[in-house]
Amino acid sequence: MSLRLLVLDAYDEPGRRAVLDIGATPGGELYRRLLLHLRPDARVELALFGAAGFALPAGAALSDYDGLVFTGSNMTIHQDTAAVREQIALVQRALDAGLDCFGSCWAAQLAVTADGGRCERNPRGREFGVSRGIALNERGRAHPLFEGRPPVFDALTSHEDHIVQLGAHTEGLAGNEFSPVQAVSIQRGRGVFWAVQYHPEFNLWDLAQLARLRGAQLIAQGFFNGDPPERALADYIADLEELENDPGREDLARRLGIPTKNLLDVDDRATEVENWLRHRLEERAPVTPA
């Protein structure tokens, strides 16, 4: 039977509008696109976060789905707001109900916080573009989330908060110089949440649009050193878009520091999502309550 999946778009309404206003693809649509690429016969539904919480499809409950996928977000997990508390509580309910979850960026921070861990603003600023040298630790090298991954790899990314303390049921699986925790596995009762800090749902065009949205912050952080930096930002965006359209442009790949083929291939970028679908949802691996 085909999978029934729910994508929970964790952006709040102002954040989602900002993404739409620059012509970018919202986080929920990014994941729906990727999931349907990996499983064309899946039933993939979307829940948007708003003032009243996540708006589930009419008549649906979380338990109706084979798996839940949480997106990135514009919110800040270590700010004590009603919206943040609502999303934390939903993750706790999902895990306590024995559901399988996956997510990226905000989702990793959300899951860790729901398990009692802690996140902070990264003092180094925003990690943007490519997460370099993500290294699997001993647990990560043996974990099915990373089946098919080399011990060290790069990934597309954008985040300014990071995980600084794991929860009681959380395993750290990977990290790099910029962020010591780049992937986690949480088992709470029979519920399981696999999450990564980077963005397997992005392609280079998506990254380019996010550079438009975050451009002023990236310039202020010194990410672009051209004269003027606004021109360097525009050139960076144009190069990303062109390389997405023509992945054979090795000159652009070198200039952008994207020499590895895995960043240009959707199936390679989505290795972790594929592993979650196969190992957690299709093979139905048994879980012993923690």
Largest sheet: 10 strands, mixed
Q: What portion of residues belong to β-strands? A: 15-25%
End-to-end span in angstroms?
29 Å
User: What is the count of DSSP helices, taking H or I runs of 4+ residues?
Assistant: 11
What does this molecule look like?
- The protein folds into 2 domains: 4-201 and 270-282, Rossmann fold (3-Layer(aba) Sandwich); 204-258.
- Helices cover 37% and strands 24% of the residues.
- The protein has helices at residues 13-21, 27-38, 82-96, 106-114, 138-142, 204-213, 215-220, 229-245, 250-256, 266-269, 271-282; strands at 4-9, 43-50, 53-55, 67-70, 100-104, 118-121, 127-136, 152-159, 161-165, 170-175, 183-188, 191-196.
- It has a 10-stranded mixed sheet, sandwiched between helices. Strands 6-9 form a two-stranded antiparallel sheet.
Helix and strand layout, with pairings?
Blueprint: E1 4-9, H1 13-21, H2 27-38, E2 43-50, E3 53-55, E4 67-70, H3 82-96, E5 100-104, H4 106-114, E6 118-121, E7 127-136, H5 138-142, E8 152-159, E9 161-165, E10 170-175, E11 183-188, E12 191-196, H6 204-213, H7 215-220, H8 229-245, H9 250-256, H10 266-269, H11 271-282
Parallel strand pairs: 1-2, 1-4, 4-5, 5-12
Antiparallel strand pairs: 2-3, 6-9, 7-8, 7-10, 10-11, 11-12
Question: Main traits of this protein?
Answer:
24% strand; 10-stranded mixed beta sheet; 290 residues; 2 domains; Rossmann fold
Summarize the structure.
By secondary structure, this protein is of the alpha/beta class.
